[in-house]
Structure formats: C-alpha cells, structure tokens
Amino acid sequence: MPLVMVIGETHLLEPHIYCDHCGDDIDDARHAHCLWDWIDDDARAETRLWFVHKDCDHLFTIGYEKRHKRHVQWRPLNDYLFQLVHNTHTDMDATRARLTDNDPE
Ligand SMILES: [Zn+2]
Q1: Model pLDDT, residue 43
Q2: Enclosing domain of residue 86
Q3: Residue 58 lies in a domain
Q4: Distance 54 CA to ligand 1 centre (A)
Q5: Rg of the chain over all Cα atoms, to the nearest angstrom
Q6: In a domain, 102, yes or no
Q7: How far is the CA of 29 from the centre of ligand 1 (A)?
Q8: Model's pTM, two decimal places?
Q9: What's the CA-to-centroid distance between 86 and ligand 1, angstroms?
C-alpha cells in the first residue's frame, strides 16, 4: 500500500499513491483501482489493501491469486476515496479552503 508523502509543486508535503504493480504515480483516480484481500471474514479484521492502475490490475491480480490461492476484490479508486471521505465525515469545502489558504489550522 504505497501511500507516501512527497514534496509537491507547491514545495509542501502532500500525499501521493504509487501503483503496487508498476510503481508509477497514480495521478488520476479515474484510471485506478483499489484492491483488497480479506484476511478474515470479520469485517474489522486487518485487510490487505493495494492501489493499481487499471492497466496493471490484471497482471497484479493474476500474480497475487496464483501465489496466495485467494481472490482479490476491487473497487474503482474514485469510489473508494469518495466512501473514505464520507465515512470519515470530511468536510471537503472547509478542507479545500484551508489547504488553498495554506492555513496549518
Ligand atoms: Zn501501474
């Protein structure tokens, strides 16, 4: 799960997602998937999670399933991020305004 902090164009640290298959930056969520493999049927159990480009999904999934004999589930990255924002009650307007103003809060 390569969620990392890098120095962005504004010279501030910002989160980026790198593809778990090819290692390149995922710079457009419309062209990526979130993949996971439940370790346990318990919904709160630890879940292995990966991010891949759509073009990398097939090779990543085939390799994982062959090695682990388990099926990988997936969701479009846009959907995953939207649900994450919703489930964490993130106020996107307030957050956007604060980050745009570079206000450290
Ligand atoms: Zn990739």
Answers
A1: 61
A2: 3-96
A3: yes
A4: 7
A5: 16
A6: no
A7: 12
A8: 0.83
A9: 26
| Residue type present at position 22 | C
In a domain, 101, yes or no: no
- Token couple for 91: 């106020």
Cβ-Cβ contacts under 8 Å for 74 (sequence gap 6 or more): 33, 34, 35, 36, 57, 61
Q: CA 57, CA 26: separation in Å to the nearest integer? A: 13
Residue 39 counted as domain residue: yes
> Tens of pLDDT along 23-81?
999 999 999 999 998 766 666 666 788 999 999 999 999 999 999 888 899 999 999 99
The total of structural domains in the chain comes to 1
pLDDT band at 12 (very low <50, low <70, confident <90, very high): confident
Give 37 Cα–ligand 1 centroid separation in angstroms.
18
Of all residues in the chain, what percent are helix, strand and coil, respectively (each to 5)?
35, 30, 35
